[in-house]
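Dissemination and training. As part of the outreach component of the grant, students in the summer workshop were shown how a complex can be specified as a set of sequence lines and then modelled as a single object. The example used during the hands-on session is reproduced here so that future cohorts can follow it. Participants entered these lines:
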Amino acid sequence: MLTLISIILGLIPTVLKSIPGISAGIQQIIADISASVAAILGSGVITQPNANTILSAWLGVVTALKADPTLPASSLAAVAELEKIVQAVLIEDAALAKQVDWSKLLPITPVP
Amino acid sequence: MRLKTNVMPIFLALLLAASCAKQPAAAPVPGTINTFDAFAARTIGDAQAALVGAKTWELCSDANFPPTVTFDTYTNSCDPTAGKFPAVGRPILYKAEQSYNIALAAAQSYHAGASSDTAGLTQALTTLGIDIGTMLTGIGKGK
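and obtained this result:
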């Protein structure tokens, strides 16, 4: 069953492609991974190993982007934070796939 | 036009999610009453993790990156290399938090047997998915 983690994994390339100044080589890698990810998500069967593999692929791209000194630091910092958040979601998703503890699902106080 | 461009991948992903959610699950998840309950809990738990991460970043940024920040039941470490929380992220984080609380309440009610409104819960989860996707896309772009 496809969950929010799958949606999030599918959105990562949208964020990566928005970084100005990405080289043609990295853009091609993003396109290639996007095609593979779309095929996995389109199959309707996403497993935890699949999710981890997809995230690993995107983390590889992020690592490559971090090594490029010509890219804007603010964009890379934001992508790095996004990477941390997605990793946290993936860990939570793996736990929830095995067992749900409703006492840990708590309201969050919205602050405008 | 720009809004449509930004939101389109989220809608496509949600359409995909909706189509896949109709497929039978392999086995019930402990702590849930059925596969829909499990789907709701998993969506909400994933959203909670995303919101806690984003809110931690926002509060750390606002306080100029102290060692930790505390909100609700959480005390989380700040990463001084994170950079300023994107201004565009504030209203969409707020909206996602509101959607999360609505979906959580609906899911808890369904799980407890107090409600059988699957359509309402589905709508709440869909809205939550859109808002989480919008939030992550927005803050990930760092503007």
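The two ends of chain A are 33 Å apart (CA to CA). Students were then asked to discuss how this feature might be tested experimentally.
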